[in-house]
Amino acid sequence: MSKATNKREGHPVKRQRKERTKQQGKQSGRQKSILIQQQMSSLRKSRLLLMAFSLALGAAIISQAVFMAESVQRIFVEKATLSSIMPLLGLLLTVMALRTLLTYGNGKVGLHMAARAKTNMRAKVLQNLIQASMFSALQGQTGGKVSVALDAVDEADSYFSQYMPRMMEASIIPIVILVVAFTLHANTGWILLCTAPFIPLFMILVGLQTKNKSEEKYAQLAEFSGTFLDSLQGLVTLKIFGRVNRQQQEIERSSLGYRDSTMSILKIAFTNTFMLEAIVMLSIGIVALELAIQLLVYKSMTFHTAFLLLLLVPEFYSLLKNTGTAFHSGRTSMGAIRKVEQLIGESEQRSENSQPKKDEENSSHHQFLPRSSSTKSDMPSFIELKNVRFHYAPGSFALETGHVSIKPGEKLAIVGPSGSGKTTLLSLISGLLHPTSGEVCINGRPLVQINEDDWFKQISYITQHPYIFAGTLAENITIGSGRDEPRAEIEKAAERAGLTSLIALLDKGLDTPVGEGGRGLSGGEKQRLALARAFLKKPALILFDEPTVGLDLRTEQILQRSIAALSQQATIITVAHRLYTIQQADQIWFMSDGVLADSGTHQELLERVPVYAEMVQLQRTGGIA
Predict the structure, then answer these.
(1) How many whole angstroms separate alpha carbon 609 and alpha carbon 99?
(2) Cα distance from N-terminal residue to C-terminal residue, the chain
(3) Does 57 have pLDDT greater than 60?
(4) Residue 296 burial by CB count (10 A; 0-12/13-18/19+): exposed, middle or buried?
(5) Which SMART domains does the record associate with it (predicted)?
(6) What is the C-alpha to C-alpha distance for residues 255 and 249, in angstroms, rounded to an integer?
(7) Range scoring the smallest mean pLDDT among 88-102, 441-455, 552-566
(8) Angle between helices 7-30 and 303-354 (to 10 degrees)
(9) Angle of helix 164-184 versus helix 86-131 axis, rounded to 10
(10) Are 512 and 504 in contact (CB under 8 A)?
């Protein structure tokens, strides 16, 4: 859960975040977004269609101005009758309708591009999260990842739906208008040419600041989402320990930080709009003044030409102004896209660090294919821990094992006082954690060099609180096998796990739905459901993390019988709390203060390790170990 920080602590964190986003902004300024390049490549046909629409739209804008100027010339200057200009007005209405359709078409193409790009990016994010290594998946806050996959991808919409169509229009239509302006009156063309650069220059200056602020906003949103999700998941714990008010303050701090980041972007947007309007109004005023001087003072220009130019000039600046607004939205979207890239990049980097090289994969792949039977020869031949050391952070809890091994088919128990590192050691053996130094080896090969998918097909890890998904009992059992299983096999696995009596009481049997997290099931029923997964999967290695803690004696006996049945076809490693349940283990490892202090059989440890003997005696007499 996120640690609550007071306001004084929030300031240096905020400064560090700002510095980090500034550095990311500088890096992103030096290279174009790879993710955007990929999307642009896949949207080549849509971009060509945008170009065609923009060219046609430019022709429609100029045609509309020409017909409008001609109509005004005939009515107010030449005093023509209404009937004589009806064909001209018909053409004008046709061109206006065509312009509306082309504008609508441009918008539809942009929306189509945005929808397709968001679908591709979200699929890439989800695929990356699914294919990421287990070690990578455990890093970071779940809420932050959800925020990126949903909110950040959605925010990328405006880049494709607004920014790209407007930029395509701005790269074609103003040039066409500029050519017409130079053709009709060179002075107007020069004024347009000299004033136009102020708009994109201002866009670039504001856009860079907007993108940096946007990245800061999404960092705040990810923090807020993670804090909020952590609080919801731990609400019961917070209430029990009276920490609700403190966590409420932390959520409020995160929420206010996100609000401040959002408001700073809105402030930039309002400033951007005001400055663009000021530049456009000033530029149009200069052109209008020059045209008025030429028309009224020097009388070197006809009314038709002056009016036509006066119609085209606002169109010219309006396109640039709209592009400025779209540029602001595009920069905001760029910040969101950077967060998506960052999530993908971090996940890929962690996965690369935790996955074997291709030549090592090829040589070890055949050793860890899905098993077709439960014979001993299919098990991992040998597990070794070669002077494994691990710590979560420098100066924190440290674990050390020395050189120990586990033979195939052995029943190993890991015991020791609370906080001695039993669960951490189990996570190292399973590959959920990577050693700080030393190696965990399988068949003589370091575990970090073995293909992760193949390795996890060989093991089952049953914790004190196995996760039950929202779905039916049958679906929760088959989730461990990774393949479609015959109904008979599912029923057999449920029976061997001791679920028969529970299923018999349910109207829908194995098709009975359960709530997320196993709502509606007791602790023992959840454990038996997890055991059913293992029976169906038939793994070579099964790891138990104190599976019977908190269960009543009868439920514990049922689980122990199921575990004994599983041990006939797999290597079993159990973190044990109740020591009488592991007295028949082939090996017992005794942990003390993070060190694997001794190993041997139950009788050997009774003779050699006084603390172990004391723990056994306390449990025999009803004391607490």
Answers:
(1) 89
(2) 28
(3) yes
(4) exposed
(5) AAA
(6) 10
(7) 552-566
(8) 110
(9) 150
(10) no
- Helices marked H in 355-385 — which ranges? 358-364
Whether 41 shows a pLDDT value over 70: the answer reads: yes
Cα 172 to Cα 164: distance, rounded to the nearest angstrom = 13
Q: Hey, which bits of 447-495 come out as E strands?
A: 459-462, 471-472
- CB of 459 closer than 8 Å to CB of 542: yes
pLDDT tens per residue, range 277-287: 888 899 999 99
Structure token digits, residue 41: 């490549």
Report the pLDDT averaged over residues 419-428. 89
> Is residue 261 classed as helix, strand or coil in its secondary structure?
helix
Number of alpha carbons in the 13 Å side-chain half-sphere of residue 64: 18
Chain centroid, CA 95 distance in Å = 46
User: Exposure of 530 by Cβ count < 10 A (0-12 exposed, 13-18 middle, 19+ buried)?
Assistant: buried
For residues 287 and 560, which has the higher predicted lDDT (pLDDT)? 287
Question: Both tokens of residue 222?
Answer: 């990810």
Distance between CA atoms of residues 386 and 381, nearest Å? 16
Q: What are residue 443's DSSP bridge partners?
A: none
- Phi-psi bin for 518: left (phi > 0), alpha (psi -120 to 50), beta? left
Domains and CATH numbers, the chain: 37-345 (1.20.1560.10), 362-451+579-625 (3.40.50.300)
Alpha-carbon span 558 to 574, nearest angstrom: 16
Provide the token pair at 97.
Answer: 């309708």
As a whole number of angstroms, the distance between CA 77 and CA 159 comes to: 46
For residue 517, what are the contacts with CB-CB under 8 A and spacing of at least 6?
467, 468
Query: Which percentage of the chain shows pLDDT scores above 70?
Result: 80
Contact 462, 570 (CB under 8 A): no
For the segment 424-474, what is each residue's pLDDT rounded down to a tens digit? 999 899 888 889 999 999 988 898 888 887 888 888 888 878 888 888 899
Q: What are phi and psi of 623, to 5 degrees?
A: -80, 180
- Mean pLDDT, the chain, rounded, equals 80
Tell me what pLDDT residue 1 has: 39
Q: Are strands 403-406 and 398-400 parallel, antiparallel or unpaired?
A: unpaired
Whether 15 has a pLDDT exceeding 50, the answer reads no
Question: What residues have CB less than 8 Å from 491, skipping those under 6 apart?
Answer: 510
378: CB partners within 8 A, 6+ apart: 371, 372, 540
- Which pTM value belongs to this model? 0.59
Q: Do 596 and 413 contact (CB within 8 A), yes or no?
A: no
Beta strands in 552-601 (DSSP E): 571-575, 587-592, 595-600
Cβ atoms < 10 Å from Cβ of 110: 25
CB distance 617 to 423 below 8 Å: no
In three-state form (DSSP H/G/I as H, E/B as E, the rest C), the secondary structure along 59-81 is HHHHHHHHHHHHHHHHHHHCCCC
- The count of other CB atoms within 10 Å of the CB of residue 517 is 14
Is it the case that residue 144 has pLDDT exceeding 80? no
CA distances 455 to 137, 366, 442, 462, 541, Å, are 16, 11, 10, 16, 10
**Which residue, chain included where needed, has tokens 């454990």?**
527
